[in-house]
Amino acid sequence: MLLSRWLTGRAWLLFAGLLGFGLPVGWSAIRAGVGPTPLLPDVIVWADRARHLLYGWTLDRREQPGRVLLRLTTAIPNQGAGPMELVGGETHPDGTQDVYQRIYNDDGTYADVLAGVFVHHPEHNHIHFEGYAVYRLRAVTDEGGVGDVVAEGDKVSFCLIDVLVYDRRLPGFPRTAQYRTCNATRQGVSVGWADVYEKSLPDQWIDVTDVPNGQYWLEVEVDPENRLLESDETNNVTRISIVLRK
């Protein structure tokens, strides 16, 4: 359906419900407490000193001469009940591609919910989840709270795979990585695993050239446009305190 291309995530569920058709996974029945239960993912941002995740930031003066880039490594684990899986759909003449979130149920069935229409990259042969994360530097208020954004990186496109074990104690954790490569049809993060984007990769930075030295909050938000369906939508932001000395 052409109209579905313009509706994503919960907006599509609401719209479909109002029209009385096409609710994935029997969402009306689920709300009533009957039928299969969706095993929703829950993606967060992982900050870990020992693994240099978010804490291992560095200043880069080489990539763009005359500019200072704060580079950071981002790890996004899935601590939900089911995998965060994306599947590629139809590609369109304008260079876009439909990307769906595949939601599994406890009875082994699944449903695909439109997550968005993204730019198709045929030369890479895989889906890029555009705007999967965003990086910000925020001021520290006089009371030590979180202030205004003073610098922000571009929204980062991710290609999701299982890279690092996050928590093997979670129910549904697979002992081996299930998403080893990302391609044009399927990618994701298993329960208890994390996708990791190293600070050396493109777009893994915030330009801090014009930011004065001092103390700031370094903040990462996953799924900032709320395209994904998760069991918890309130835990997508992580921030750490840093001291900037250029």
Walk me through the topology.
Layout: H1 9-19, H2 27-31, E1 58-60, E2 69-71, E3 74-77, E4 84-91, E5 96-104, E6 110-119, E7 129-140, E8 146-152, E9 156-158, E10 164-165, E11 186-189, E12 193-197, E13 205-207, E14 214-222, E15 237-244
Describe this structure in words.
The protein is mostly beta strands and 246 residues long. The chain has one domain (2-244). It is 7% helix and 37% strand. It is built from two helices and 15 strands. It has helices spanning 9-19, 27-31; strands at residues 58-60, 69-71, 74-77, 84-91, 96-104, 110-119, 129-140, 146-152, 156-158, 164-165, 186-189, 193-197, 205-207, 214-222, 237-244. Strands 7, 8, 9, 14 and 15 form a five-stranded antiparallel sheet that branches. Strands 6-5-4-11 form a four-stranded antiparallel sheet. A three-stranded antiparallel sheet has the order 1-2-13, with no helix packed on it. Strand 7 and strand 8 form a beta hairpin. The N and C termini lie far apart (52 Å). Residues 1-32 have low confidence and may be disordered.
